[in-house]
Amino acid sequence: MKYKTTPLFYGANENFKGTVRFVVELKEDVDFEPLRYAVEQVKKRYPYFSVQIKEENEAFVLVDNDRPFVISLDGTSKCLNSEESNYHLVAFGLKDNRIFVDFSHLIADGNGITPLVKTLLYYYIENKYGTDGIDTEDIRLVSDSVLEEEYIYPFPDEPIVMEDAIPIKPKEYDPLTFDDAFFDDGGPYAYHLQVRQEDLMKYAKINDGSPVSFIGVMMYKALMSLFPETEKDILIEIPHEYRKALGRPLSHDSLVRVFVVRLTPKDQSKDIEMLNTAIRGQIVLGGDVSQDIEAINGLIQMDGYLKNLSLAEKKQALWDMLSNVMAPHTTGISYTGNISWGGMDKYLKDVYPYAGENKFSGSISVEVFSFGDYFSINVMQPGENPALIQEMINAFSKCGIKCNLSGEERYALPDYLIP
Question: Is pLDDT at 358 greater than 60 in this prediction?
Answer without folding.
Answer: no
